[in-house]
Amino acid sequence: MTLSRRSMLALAAGLPLGMTIAGRAAATGVPMRYTMTAFTNDSETDMYVYESTDATNFTLLRAAAYRPPTGLCRDPSLFRGFDGAYYLTYTTGWDGDTIGFARSTDRVNWTFLYELLVPVPDVGHTWAPEWFVDRRGRIGVVVSLNTGPNFRPYLMTALHPALRSWSPLTPLPGFDPAPDTLGYIDTTIVAADGRYHAFTKNESTKLVELAVAESPTGPYRFVETGDWAGWGGPCEGQCVIQLPDGRWRIFLDHYDLDEPERGTYLYSDSFDTFRTWTEPAELPGISGTVRHFTVLPERL
Fold first, then answer.
1. DSSP per-residue letters across 186-249
2. pLDDT tens, 83-120?
3. ω into residue 219 within 30 of 0, thus cis?
4. Over the stretch 140-157, which tens digit does the pLDDT of each residue have?
């Protein structure tokens, strides 16, 4: 892949290449590649890599492409960093206070980097870390922490381009769980129309809701709750990307409460920046196999 001068400047500024050139592809109509990183019903310790040219039909690129030295590799979140390499962050265990990081130069051969100890008191669960880049190119991770009876999203920001030092984790205002509720997990944030849109799973209702803010650090306010988009539930593991024609696509892990391995994976599109959505459809080929993935768009 040949990088344009604009893409090289974006990399130097610390902005992930995949998120930069996806917008350019929308304007130029160039071919796209979509890389998916997922765990599967068969293994929550191995990360599988898939790819697609249309964000719909995915084929296996490598099975069991990465296994951390210890713990799990659930909820693997992928992005491409300032150096052109690919970075992974993931859930290391059902319980605990760490998240994992790995690096690859080709998407299929991965090197373990480190486990980060979450410096938040009384953390019992540290789930679903998600890469996040704001409009200024600052790289962050949003992670769901449980410090008592419920979950809420926290944000930390990289302090160095090598992604080895981080700001303190800060709870995102606006996601304060109500009493006797389970809170919010699997939060993923995208920038659109001058605002930040946070898609989050209400762990009590098992539905994906939407909150917005003017700043990446909030405060967020909920603009859509319940089954507002018609996706149904229980749903989790949402991933939101923009396609070359300008529409937005959400992928949803539609699982079975009693037997999660019997669930399906859905996708749904919005042509009006999250106001309305198409009827959810089952992701062909790999629905029922993959779990909680992310998809990275890149120009070919």
1. EEEEEEETTEEEEEEEETTTTEEEEEEESSTT---EEEE-SSTTS--SSEEEEEEEE-TTS-EE
2. 999 999 999 999 999 999 999 999 999 999 999 999 99
3. yes
4. 999 999 998 899 999 999
Residue type, 299: R
Angle at 249 between CA 244 and CA 263, to 5 degrees: 140
With the CA atoms of 137, 138, 144 and 147 taken in that order, what torsion angle do they form, in degrees rounded to the nearest 10?
Answer: -160
Listed in order, strand segments (DSSP E) in the chain are 32-40, 47-52, 59-66, 74-80, 86-91, 98-104, 110-117, 125-133, 139-146, 151-157, 170-171, 184-192, 195-202, 207-213, 221-224, 235-242, 248-254, 264-270, 281-282, 290-299
Task: Give per-residue pLDDT as tens, 172-220.
Answer: 999 999 888 999 999 999 999 999 999 999 999 999 999 999 999 999 9
In the three-class reduction of DSSP (H, G, I as helix; E, B as strand; rest coil), residue 18 is classed as helix
